[in-house]
Design brief:
This protein has about 250 residues and is an alpha/beta fold. The chain contains nine helices and twelve strands. It has a six-stranded mixed sheet with strand order 6-9-10-3-11-12, with helices on both faces. A four-stranded antiparallel sheet has the order 2-1-4-5, with helices on one face. A two-stranded antiparallel ribbon has the order 7-8.
Amino acid sequence: MNALEIKDLHVSIGDKEIIRGLTLTVPRGEVHAIMGPNGSGKSTLSKAIGGHPDYVVTSGTVRLDGVNILDMAADARARAGLFLAFQYPMEIPGVSNANFIRAALQARLPDGEELEATDFYAQLYAEMDKLEMSRTFTARSVNEGFSGGEKKRNEILQMAMLKPKYAILDETDSGLDIDALRIVSAGVNAQRGPGLGALVITHYQRLLDYIVPDHVHVMVEGRIVRTGGKELALELEEKGYDFIKESLTTV
């Protein structure tokens, strides 16, 4: 099956278990959203899948198109087709945006094969235009001195250039004003299609007005506790997460 498949995943930070038996399948061609209150484990999930060494998977599996990626290093997971957009993108002083993206693309090519510069820049400029990014960003160090909106546009630019099979977008709407949210969401929507499975992590309904999910999952205390269509996000917006928690205690 062409899918990101997470089965009975348990993740700990130090001696504290954060993810407690989470199971979720995101097929290619679909957009799934995870919503949940602070502390529910949403960002822990994204970092564990991405291969952050502080987030220890104690049991369970994560598969990309049937291949268990948990024994892979983070860069190998990326080459296998996984992309992670961070809630707080890191700054990389001294490395230009163009060189960063070019090196990432080069790393995916077979040994001895070189990226063609003219084609690379033509594609880069085309994707930057879609995100309303100035060409001056190619020479600027990755995220250094960028506003919150510029950092998020830069992440979606990287995603557009790398063309992953699966993308995890961790609170992409964090720190965005209305105009930046519209542009970033349009950049994500432009990449939707049968070749991409996306997992969108957010606190708020407003992002899902722009990136309309096929399925919405509610995460509480390290587990998926409820799944529904896009209308579930509207229900959460109206009733809040306490409504979900209360309903769990009455079951």
